[in-house]
Amino acid sequence: AQRRAWGLLAAGGLGASLLALHAVVTPFVMPALRRVCLPFVPATSAQIENVLEMLRGRRGPLVDIGSGDGRIVIAAAKRGFKAVGYELNPWLVWYSRYRAWRDGVHQNAKFYISDLWKVSFSHYTNVVIFGVPQMMPQLEKKLEEELQHNARVIACRFPFPCWIPDHTTGEGIDTVWAYDLKTSMG
Questions:
Q1: Which residues touch 138 (CB under 8 Å, ≥6 apart)?
Q2: Alpha-carbon distance 89 to 112, whole Å?
Q3: What is the CA radius of gyration of the chain?
C-alpha cells in the first residue's frame, strides 16, 4: 500500500511538473509557430535613449507594438506620455504591469495581451515598433491606413521598406528611424 501511494505521488508530481512546464514554455514557443515570428529581445539602454530622443517635443498617446517587458512604455510614461503596450506573451504583459506598478507609472502605462494585427492604432500619434524584416511591409501598410497624418512612427532595429525616415539616430542594432507620416508617405 505504501509503495502504491509513493507511485501515485510520483505520478502526480510528474504530471504537475509537466503542466507547469507547459504553462511557462507555451507563450514563448507559440510565437515561433506563427507566420511571422516576433522573438522577445529586450531593448538596450541605448535603444531606449534613442527612442526617447525621437520623442522629444512630441505630445499625444504612445503605443509600443510588441512591447516585450515594457521598457519603452515605462520609459515613455516616466517622460509624461500616456503609453500603451501590446504584447502576445501573457507572461511579459504581467511582468510589464508589475514593473510599471513598481516604478510608480501604472496610471500612465497600460499593457494588453493582443495580436498587433487585431488592434487599431488609429488614435495614437506616437508609435514604436521593434519589428522583424518579414513583417515591416505589412505593418507599413496597416499603419498607413490607420494613423493620422500627424503621427510619428519610430522603428527600432529594422527600418520600413518604403517610407523615407525624417530622422535617424544610433548605430548598429541601436539604430532608430523616425517617420513623420505627413512627409514619409509623400
A1: 36
A2: 10
A3: 20
Q: Which residue has the cell 539602454?
A: 45
One of 3.40.50.150, 1.10.3630.10, 3.90.550.10, 2.60.40.1120 is the CATH number of 45-181, namely 3.40.50.150
- pTM (2 decimals)? 0.79
- Spatial contact of 179 and 165, defined as CB atoms under 8 Å apart: yes
pLDDT of residue 33: 42
Which candidate, 132, 96, 105, places its Cα nearest to that of 116? 132
Spatial distance between the Cα atoms of 128 and 106, rounded to a whole number of angstroms: 19
By CB atoms closer than 10 A (0-12, 13-18, 19+), residue 73 is buried
Q: Is 81 helix (H, G, I), strand (E, B) or coil?
A: coil
